[in-house]
Design goal:
hpI Integrase, Chain A, 3 domains, elongated, mainly alpha, 10% strand, 449 residues
Length: 449
C-alpha cells in the first residue's frame, strides 16, 4: 500500500523546486585573459545580469601563477597596481562595490544599460588616476618598484634575478610593516625612529634571521641613496652611523680534498643520488655557483691547446670566467658523454640540497662539532649545494694558490670579503703554521750542515 502524502508537503516541495530555479543575485567576477608574450594576463571585471554582460578592463595585469582563482584576487595581499601607487586587491574590491552599487541604483529605473555601469567604473578609475596625479611626487614604494622591474641599473648593467628578488622581498616587508604599525613609510619617514621600530618588527614579528635583517637594511639604504641622487628627497638620516645592522659571520662548512675524494669514490646504488654526487663533485672542482654549474651548456666547454676549459658568463655577476677542467671534471664529462651538456640532469636547488645530505650520510660524514654554532649537528646535515663552491675556494686557498686569482673565479671584489667567504678553521691554520715551521727548520738545518 502506498504511503499517504500530505497536500501541504506537496505544496512545500513544489515551492522549494521553484525557489531553486530562481535566478541568483548578480555577482561581479574577475577573470584573467590569456597570457601575452611577456607571460602576463590582464585582469577583467565580468558582470552578468538580466541577460546582459559587462566585461571591463582597467589596465592591470599579473602573472597567472600569482592569481587565486577561487578568491578571484591576487595571492600576495601586498601586491600593488602596475604603477606601484595602490594595493591591487583594494582596487578590485573598490571596482566590485562600485559596479554593484551602480547596478542597484540604476535598477530603480529598469534594467541598466552596460554603459551606465561602465561610466561608474570609469569615474572610479579616473578619480584614482587624478588623485595620483595630484600627488605626482614619487614615493619610496614607486621607486622600489622601478628597482624590482629592473629599470634602475648599476653603470648600465642589468641587475641579477637574485637582486631583483631581494628588492621585491624588502618591499613586501616594508608594506607589511606599514600595515602592522599603521605608520606611513616614505622618503621623509626613514630615520632612526623608523630603523629601531622596523628592526624590532623584523626580529619579533617576522622572525627573520640576523643576516636577512642586515640585507633588508642595506637595500633600504640603496633605495634611499638612489632617491637622493634623483633629487626625490634631501633626507640623509639613513646615513647616520647608527642606521646600520651588521651581518653575523655564518659558520658554513667546506669539504677537504680527502673528503671530496672519499665522496667521489663512494659506490651508490641509487641512480639519482649518484648523479647528485657527481654534480656536487663537479661544482667543487670548478668553483661556480649552483645556478651556473648546474646549467653548463655544450658551448661552455672549450678546448685550448689540447686542454679543456669552462668558459661562461655567470648569472649573478655577469662576469666572464674561464676555468680549467681537472682530471676529475674530465672523468665526469666522459661518464655523461651521452648527455647534451656532458653532465648529470639538473634538478632544483631545494631537491639538490636534500639529496646531497643523503649522499654524505652514505659516505659516513658523521663528524660533529664542525661548526661552533651547531655543535650537535653532523657534517652530512651541514652540506648543501653552496658547500661545493666554498670547498673549491678554501681548498685552493690552503694550497697557496694566489688569492687574487681565486677571486677572479669566485667573483669577490675585495680580499676582505673573500677571506670571510672561505672556511679555514683554527686547526687548518695551526696545520699550515706547523708545515711552515717544519720547512723553515729543515732549511736552517741544511744550511748549518
Amino acid at each position: 500500500m502506498s504511503p499517504v502524502v500530505s497536500p501541504d508537503l506537496i505544496i512545500f516541495s513544489t515551492f522549494r523546486k521553484r525557489e531553486g530555479t530562481m535566478p541568483r543575485k548578480p555577482q561581479v567576477n574577475f577573470r584573467l585573459k590569456p597570457e601575452d608574450n611577456d607571460g602576463l594576463s590582464n585582469i577583467v571585471l565580468d558582470f552578468a545580469y538580466q541577460k546582459r554582460r559587462l566585461r571591463y578592463g582597467f589596465g592591470q595585469s599579473i602573472k597567472p601563477k600569482d592569481w587565486n582563482e577561487k578568491k578571484q584576487r591576487v595571492k600576495d595581499k601586498l601586491a600593488t597596481t602596475n604603477d606601484g601607487k595602490f594595493a591591487l586587491n583594494d582596487m578590485l574590491d573598490n571596482l566590485e562595490s562600485t559596479c554593484l552599487r551602480a547596478y542597484s541604483e540604476a535598477l530603480k529605473d529598469g534594467i541598466p544599460d552596460t554603459n551606465i555601469l561602465k561610466h561608474a567604473l570609469d569615474t572610479l578609475i579616473d578619480k584614482n588616476h587624478n588623485n595620483a596625479e595630484v600627488s605626482n611626487k614619487p614615493t619610496l614604494f614607486s621607486l622600489a618598484q622601478r628597482f624590482i622591474n629592473g629599470e634602475i641599473k648599476f653603470r648600465g648593467k642589468d641587475k641579477s634575478q637574485s637582486s631583483l628578488d631581494n628588492y621585491s622581498a624588502v618591499t613586501k616587508h616594508l608594506k607589511a610593516y606599514q600595515t602592522f604599525s599603521k605608520l606611513r613609510v616614505d622618503f621623509d619617514t626613514i630615520d632612526l625612529d623608523f630603523f629601531y621600530s622596523y628592526v624590532n618588527y623584523l626580529k619579533h614579528k617576522q622572525k627573520l634571521a640576523v643576516n636577512t635583517i642586515a640585507k633588508d637594511i642595506s637595500i633600504i639604504k640603496v633605495f634611499m641613496g638612489e632617491a637622493v641622487d634623483l633629487e626625490y628627497t634631501d633626507n640623509m638620516k639613513f646615513r647616520h652611523k647608527k642606521f646600520a645592522f651588521n651581518e653575523e659571520e655564518t659558520d658554513n662548512v667546506y669539504l677537504t680534498e680527502d673528503e671530496l675524494t672519499q665522496l667521489y669514490a663512494l659506490k651508490i646504488a641509487n641512480k639519482k643520488l649518484e648523479e647528485v654526487r657527481d654534480l656536487f663533485i663537479f661544482g667543487a672542482w670548478v668553483g661556480l655557483r649552483f645556478s651556473d654549474f648546474s646549467n653548463i651548456k655544450p658551448e661552455n666547454i672549450i678546448q685550448i691547446d689540447g686542454d679543456f676549459f669552462i668558459k661562461m658568463i655567470t648569472q649573478k655577476t655577469k662576469e666572464l670566467v674561464i676555468i680549467p677542467c681537472n682530471p676529475v671534471v674530465m672523468e665526469i664529462f666522459e661518464k655523461y658523454a651521452n648527455r647534451p651538456n656532458r653532465l648529470p640532469k639538473t634538478i632544483s636547488n631545494q631537491k639538490f640540497n636534500e639529496y646531497i645530505k643523503d649522499v654524505c650520510k652514505l659516505a659516513d660524514f658523521n663528524e660533529k662539532g664542525r661548526v661552533s654554532t651547531k655543535p650537535k649537528e653532523i657534517l652530512a646535515d651541514l652540506v648543501s649545494s653552496h658547500t661545493a663552491r666554498r670547498s673549491f675556494a678554501t681548498n685552493y686557498y690552503l694550497q697557496g694558490f694566489p688569492t687574487i686569482d681565486l677571486m677572479k673565479i669566485t667573483g669577490h671584489k675585495t680580499e676582505r670579503s673573500f677571506l670571510k667567504y672561505i672556511r679555514v678553521s683554527k686547526l687548518d691554520t695551526a696545520k699550515r703554521l706547523s708545515e711552515h715551521i717544519k720547512a723553515n727548520w729543515s732549511r736552517k738545518l741544511m744550511s748549518v750542515a
